[in-house]
Design goal:
Elements: H1 4-10, H2 14-24, E1 36-42, H3 50-69, E2 74-80, H4 120-134, E3 140-143, H5 144-149, H6 154-162, H7 164-173, H8 177-180, E4 186-188, E5 203-205, E6 210-214, E7 220-224, E8 230-232, H9 234-245, E9 249-253, H10 260-269, E10 276-280, E11 283-284, H11 301-307, H12 310-318, E12 325-326, H13 331-346, H14 351-355, H15 358-363, H16 376-386, H17 392-401, H18 411-428, H19 439-453, H20 461-473, H21 480-491, H22 499-506, H23 508-519
Parallel strand pairs: 1-2, 1-9, 2-3, 9-10, 11-12
Antiparallel strand pairs: 4-8, 5-6, 6-7
Helix pairs in contact: 2-3, 6-9, 7-10, 9-10, 12-13, 16-18, 19-20, 19-23, 20-22
Subcellular location: Cytoplasm
Keywords: Aminoacyl-tRNA synthetase, ATP-binding, Cytoplasm, Ligase, Nucleotide-binding, Protein biosynthesis
Protein name: Lysine--tRNA ligase
Length: 525
């Protein structure tokens, strides 16, 4: 019988594919540092967003896969570049005008506009940690402020002085001509103002480990590159961090992919070994535009978690990471239902199938049991016909359909009922448009009504589906026009659930009443 390790060594699931590539890195023996290091980076200029979740979730999936196929210990660090200068004042903070005087100050030197932490950087770092902890990620946090100031970066910074010309050659090739004239890989922190300085170097002294530059007022300064006096520009910082920490794996969005050769080469110039990387595609909104923090398009973390579980979000992140996917509210119900379909399938799968099942990569070996005896899409339609304002309104229907189900024993179903009511009221209800049936549709609906009136087969969803099917089979070509009519006439929507299942959940008598209202024109207007 194949165990999970053997299955992982042949699985086509992308986390295992990446994990095997990483394992080849150490096929001659474990790393000298004693562990494989995964890193994910974070720019703390704003609050964590859905891209942050995706990056950590996907990195964790690869880490988990690696731990299945290898006995080498692993670590995951989340690195916050909080020495970065504040380039603009965020618009979503209290009294933003008070922060204007702190432009170009390192984020850990900008006062916290919320008045809760030592600085704005500390505030955003705390939000990041709380965010990661909420989702149960296992990670170690590193602040760039502490990393630079503590001396952990000193060896690599001194090496950057020695290799300054080599690194500058790499960088200058990638810059426009006007930018080349003022560019330096080093960004000094002004000794008086504390601001991050974007100035050219007059001299770099490799022996002393010092840089000399003029500030905006023409005054000359000489500073050691160690001790937190200097930070690296973000592209050199990427490669230098890899070298300093001996990072083995880092993933990032496609917008970084053109910089990968730059990061790699700088890492190698500084004596490091370039890590394995994974580039994922960016998310698009409903109109196909790239989702961005500044424009606020797409779905935020909080919005997704208002209408669906965090596991469904992880499922969405798992699927096709190298394909640009539209991330808008319409994808949420599908993600919920597909996640639970995979949970139900996992129970009877062998190791090979489990290694390819997304829920293994979301949960590891501890995959929960799905108690979703009613699909989320069905709950949405139930909320729609019941005009539900509270999830309790759905439970009367649910318990008739599944008598053993209770909110206490079926927590995921109870949670989903709450999500469904919210989703219905916010997205479905405002867009419901009913129409009157055509003559042919009216004839079919009357046939369905008659067969339901004579029905004595209980709440067997498949048997009821056969009845619905039979009413349309001789009348509609293609048959999907019949189901489309059911959705538009009875539910006010263009698509919907398997209608036999809906009748079983909603009730035969209730469906007859719904058909009567539709035929009488009561649902329109």
């Amino acid at each position: 019988m194949t165990d999970m390790r053997d299955a992982g060594m042949t699985s086509k699931a992308w986390p295992f594919v990446e994990a095997r590539t990483l394992l080849k890195r150490y096929e001659k023996g474990a790393p000298d540092k004693g562990y494989v290091l995964f890193e994910t980076g974070y720019g703390p200029s704003g609050l964590p967003h859905i891209g942050t979740f995706g990056e950590v979730a996907r990195t964790t999936m690869i880490r988990r896969a690696f731990e299945v196929i290898s006995d080498i210990p692993t670590r995951l660090i989340c690195f916050s570049d909080d020495v970065d200068g504040m380039r603009k004042v965020p618009g979503n903070v209290p009294d933003p005008e008070k922060l204007a005087q702190y432009l170009q100050m390192p984020l850990t030197k900008v006062p916290d506009p919320f008045g809760e932490f030592e600085s704005f950087g500390h505030h955003n770092n705390a939000m990041l940690r709380r965010f990661l902890d909420t989702f149960g990620f296992e990670y170690e946090f590193i602040s760039a402020t502490e990393f630079y100031a503590s001396g952990q970066f000193d060896e690599v910074l001194l090496r950057a002085c020695e290799k300054y010309d080599d690194i500058m050659k790499v960088m200058l090739k990638s810059l426009r001509e006007e930018r080349r004239e003022t560019y330096s890989i080093f960004l000094p922190i002004h000794p008086e103002t504390g601001r991050v300085m974007y100035v050219p170097m007059k001299n770099v002294d490799a022996e002393k480990g010092e840089i000399t530059f003029d500030d905006e007022d023409g005054r000359e300064w000489t500073l050691p590159v160690t001790g937190g006096n200097v930070k690296l520009q973000w592209k050199p910082d990427f490669g230098a961090r890899w070298a300093a920490l001996d990072v083995d794996f880092e993933m990032y969005g496609k917008d970084h992919s053109t910089n990968t050769p730059i990061y790699d080469r700088i890492c190698e110039i500084l004596g490091g070994r370039k890590p394995e990387h994974f580039t994922y595609e960016l998310f698009l909104d409903a109109d196909g535009h790239k989702i961005s923090k500044s424009s606020g398009n797409g779905v935020s973390i909080d919005e997704w978690l208002t209408y669906a579980s965090s596991e469904s979000l992880s499922y969405f992140m798992y699927a096709k990471p190298k394909t640009a996917k539209r991330m808008h509210f319409d994808v949420i119900p599908k993600a919920m239902d597909e996640y639970h379909q995979q949970l139900r399938a996992y129970v009877d799968q062998d190791a090979v199938a489990r290694a390819n099942n997304p829920v293994f990569h979301i949960h590891g070996a501890d995959v929960p049991e799905s108690k979703m005896v009613v699909p989320f899409s069905m709950l949405l339609n139930l909320a729609s016909v019941a005009n539900a304002e509270e999830k309790e309104q759905l439970w009367g229907f649910i318990q008739r359909y599944a008598p053993d189900a209770t909110p206490e024993t079926h927590g995921d179903l109870d949670q989903a009922a709450g999500y469904a009511v919210r989703y219905y009221n916010d997205f479905v209800k405002p867009n419901k448009v009913f129409r009157l049936p055509s003559d042919l549709e009216r004839e079919a609906l009357l046939d369905l009504r008659g067969q339901l009136a004579d029905w004595d087969g209980g709440l067997d969803a498949e048997a009821l589906q056969s009845v619905v099917f039979a009413c349309g089979r001789e009348r509609f070509d293609p048959l999907r026009d019949w189901f489309k009519a059911l959705y538009e006439v009875l539910l006010g929507a263009s698509q919907g659930p398997r209608f036999g299942g809906f009748i079983a959940l909603y009730g035969v008598d209730e469906t007859i009443a719904l058909i009567d209202d539709a035929l009488a024109g009561k649902l329109v207007g």
